[in-house]
Fold this protein.
Amino acid sequence: MEKYLDLLPSFVDRIRKIREIFISNIVFIGQVPAPTFHERRRAECLVERLSDGGADECVIDDYGNPIGVIQGGGAERTSIFIVAHLDTFSETLVDRHYEVTDKTIIGEGVSDNSAAVGVLASLPEIFRRLGLGFTSDIVLVAPNQSLGRGNLRGIRQLLKTWPAPIRAAICLETVALGRLNYYSSGMIRGEIDCSIASEVQFGRHYTPNAILIINQVINAILELRLPQKPRTQIVIGKIAGGFNHGKAAYDATIGFEIRSDADEMVRELYRDIRDIVDSVSKIFAVEIKLNRISNLNATRLPSNHPLIKCAARVLDRLGVEIVSEPSETALSIFLQKGIPAITLGLTRGDNFHQEGAMIEIEPMFTGIAQIPALLMAMDNGGCNG
Amino acid sequence: MDKRWLDTNTFHHSEFKDIGRLLAAKQHRQVSISLCLPTLNEERTIAKEIVIMKSELMTRYPLIDEIVVIDSGSTDKTRHIARAYDVPVHLADDILPRLEKFKGKGENLWKALYVTRGDIIVYIDADIKNIHHRFAYGLIGPLLLSEHIRFTKAFYDRPIAVGENQWRPTGGGRVN
């Protein structure tokens, strides 16, 4: 492992010298919109860039996942995956303009996760210029349908059908440098819709307002008592409703997420929320629907796993402070299948999920340098459990 | 104008998409190529132009031998940003300083001839938001692949902005 760590400073310098390559890929790919379920154009762009960059095999699979393979030289065909989710939270279908300065790249979606996809597209060229070859096939994938209602379907489907043994995986997220995730919480993501028929109904003494009814649901959820152990959280992250300032709302929706270290706690709280929805629905005699849109089981890699230790040593040698938190990403799908995996962050940024999202260029040299060093260790068996 | 001449001497950038082919022609003809970016307060777009041209047409394929910025006296960070990407920057007023000074893009264009080294010089505006390296290879292609063409000029349907950072691909008028 020491010999790979000693290469890190030269990796950072050499990656700095070819910064135009990955900045260009970030711009070309990031400017193409990719809302969940509408990622096709960006997938085609990525495959083209992977092919231009020298990946040996480039394809979009039957599920729409863009894949590039750098063939390994080993007799046995094993794979190491590098993954960066393709879709973004933005709903726009119009091409965006990214702005580049001497220090930053600014544009919607750049920090989640367009820059990581751009780096993924650059890896064949980066590895070639660093003079690296591997025994395992290096599989570069930007799975689609990862976010929200997508429920990580792209990566789930890919791993069901991948023909070769997978040794390990690195998941890339644009932010933040120092991020080292190796566990995920159990999670259920859901939506609650309140819908009121517009015609006056027999028996009503008043006109119900969907926004106020949803507010009752929110208050009841907030009164649920959550344990400190297992660590548990309910986040109400989205709300929408109404159509006119002066009229009672016919529709209102909230989106929420239950997270816990224990799957049973997640299920129990989901049952509690269903009871709340049924109760409020009866009290106000309106239709309220509870929909589950995605779910994950709690998973983890043991904190003393060699892959985590290697990644931590790389970050330590690069002088980067490590931050470990649960991560509900492709990471959890790999871990559920018993495939060692971690998530790494590439750079720092600001204004996440807003139109003026920004990332810094300089930290990317360090962020990207993690990848070849860790891959070399993984390829040589240094991160096997 | 002879329509046959127009048909024979009008090209689409996609005909020159194979940069490897252009590179082979360049090496066969033993010519060098300079790219000039005339600027006046283009801090918002200059970096992206330089990065894309350098990445695609210098680092990955050495089609262009140098990129040079000729600046009309920007008061923003245009020159600083260009230098940050290792591109030489010349103030137009500093080139042939004994001559009378004029402002304007034309001044930058002709003075570029005195500071660039290439046998072929390509000029691209520095304020293009949807920059792509096809803007360069579309101009260079006919010069390298044809024996009789010595000058190329681009025309295209200009995109039009319909909001902050949103645009339609056509509707902005013909540009010549």
Summary: The two ends of chain B are 17 Å apart (CA to CA). The helical segments of chain B are 3-8, 19-29, 46-59, 78-84, 105-111, 134-145. The mean pLDDT of chain B is 92.
